[in-house]
Design goal:
Blueprint: E1 5-6, H1 12-19, H2 31-36, H3 38-41, E2 44-48, E3 51-58, E4 61-65, E5 68-69, H4 73-86, E6 92-97, H5 98-107, E7 112-116, E8 122-126, H6 127-132, H7 139-151, E9 155-159, H8 165-178, H9 185-200, E10 208-214, E11 217-226, E12 231-239, H10 246-257, E13 264-266, H11 274-282, E14 287-289, E15 291-296
Length: 305
């Protein structure tokens, strides 16, 4: 039986004991993301038989992340299916990587139907490549950075701190107003609330970030937190679009500032937004981490009991 409780900051050590020792790199497992978006998903967590399980609601549907840990996959997944049944909800597991899908199918053959949505694939890059931007394919990025340096020689790079919260929120609000995707206004409001939470709990969330000023004015900021021992998640990157080259400059400098133990950087999904997809693709990701939604093939049957 799974004994869930609401996810809190006090669960950080518990969660990271599982995530930091895993080879999973999906952004859903970054503790900063789990906590800063809990208001939207009512995320809960339970530990059982060597596994950690997250339960939450997405669009009012009960859902689970794939279990984290080592042990009998058949038993833990059966517990999750029983929990969904007890809640009167169809079983749904989301954010399932291809590797995890093989574990599920090996443990319970012919149970599941899985489908992936390209909009929710994570973009993963080698940190060193983002830090150097070497090669012909990334020449345009270097050109934009050179233009920024030429136009704004009086810039300053600073570690991001929670004392900069008011400036970051103001810049994020300006960024929203400059966007053309008006259909995403509700998403922007949720993002703003997530940002407020992160800045208010910066130290507890192990936040690492960078701020870019030009003549004293904040023109860009970015931050994130670790997913596991070798992968860092860039949760937010915002810049004043009126400062040419600010985005690629802070992107490169942040990659350079991260500890070398992070071999990979996850820059999260594009959510199907054309401009975001173009931007993330233009940095030539090392891999697209596809994530599946998994459902039962026979949700109303008892064939597998």
């Amino acid at each position: 039986m799974l004994d869930f409780h609401p996810l809190t900051l006090e669960d950080k050590a518990l969660v990271q004991r599982y995530t930091f020792n895993s080879n999973l790199r999906n952004c859903d497992l970054c503790f900063m993301n789990l906590m800063s978006w809990r208001f939207l998903y009512d995320t809960e967590v339970a530990e059982c038989d060597g596994f950690l399980v997250f339960r939450f609601y997405t669009d009012e549907h009960l859902a689970y992340l794939a279990p984290l840990g080592k042990g009998e996959w058949k038993n833990i997944v059966q517990c999750m299916m029983d929990d969904a049944e007890a809640q009167g909800q169809p079983f749904l597991m989301v954010g399932v990587t291809e590797r995890t899908l093989t574990y599920l199918n090996a443990a319970l053959p012919d149970y599941f139907y899985a489908t992936a949505d390209r909009d929710y694939s994570d973009y993963i890059y080698e940190r060193e490549k983002l830090a150097s931007l070497a090669g012909k394919k990334l020449q345009p990025k270097r050109n934009h950075i050179n233009q920024f340096l030429k136009l704004y020689p009086n810039y300053e790079l600073l570690p991001l701190t929670k004392e900069m919260m008011a400036e970051c929120l103001a810049l994020e609000t300006q960024w929203q107003e400059d966007k053309k995707e008006n259909s995403l206004r509700e998403n922007y409001a949720d993002e703003h609330r997530s940002l407020e939470y992160v800045m208010a709990h910066w130290d507890e969330l192990d936040g690492q970030g960078l701020a870019l000023r030009v003549e004293g004015k904040l023109v860009a900021f970015t931050f994130g937190a670790p997913i596991n021992c070798d992968t860092f998640d860039v949760c937010v990157e915002k810049a004043d679009v009126h400062y040419e080259g600010a985005y690629p400059f802070i992107n490169r400098e942040f990659a350079r500032s991260l500890p070398t133990r992070f071999k990979y950087i996850n820059r999260e999904e594009d959510l199907g937004v054309p401009g975001l997809r173009h931007a993330k693709t233009s940095y030539k990701p090392t891999m697209l981490l596809h994530k599946f939604a998994v459902m039962l093939k026979h949700p109303f049957g008892k064939e597998h009991k």
